[in-house]
Write a structure and sequence with these properties.
Layout (H helix, E strand, L loop, with lengths): L12 E4 L3 E5 L3 E6 L1 H5 L5 E4 L5 E5 L7 E6 L24 E4 L4 H18 L4
């Protein structure tokens, strides 16, 4: 039985979500949208880890995609599915990424990696 702590993965790390990829760097997260989603007005974005106030997540179910939202001061609050504002929708926010039911382990790994990166930047958290 191996009781050693797992070795953190070297950065950058890529996490493939639903129609987007989040790339975690030591100082930022790049959300890269696929071309088909950009046609609908969704944008790729970059979030500096120093600007992250909170990591919000909604777990995916078999019927509804989940998401991870890196909340910054530029956001008016948590994201909602039923809204007409593209920036308030999980799929339209440049600081969020969707995960399907089959990607729930990737979502958990992304949240853990972002948490570890934030802990490295701000050890007092």
């Amino acid at each position: 039985m191996d009781l050693q702590k797992p070795t953190p993965q070297p950065l950058p790390q890529a996490f493939k979500g639903h129609l987007a990829t989040a790339v975690l760097h030591p100082d930022r997260v790049d959300f890269r949208r696929r071309w088909i989603t950009r046609l609908g007005g969704n944008r790729s974005g970059t979030v500096l880890l120093a600007d992250v106030l909170k990591v919000l997540q909604v777990e995916p179910t078999r019927w509804v995609n989940g998401h991870v939202h890196l909340l910054t001061a530029a956001d008016p609050g948590a994201l909602r599915n039923l809204t007409m504002e593209t920036g308030q929708q999980p799929a339209g926010n440049p600081r969020a990424i969707l995960f399907s039911w089959g990607q729930r382990e990737t979502q958990a790994a992304f949240v853990a990696a972002v948490g570890a990166a934030l802990q490295g930047l701000r050890p007092g958290l």
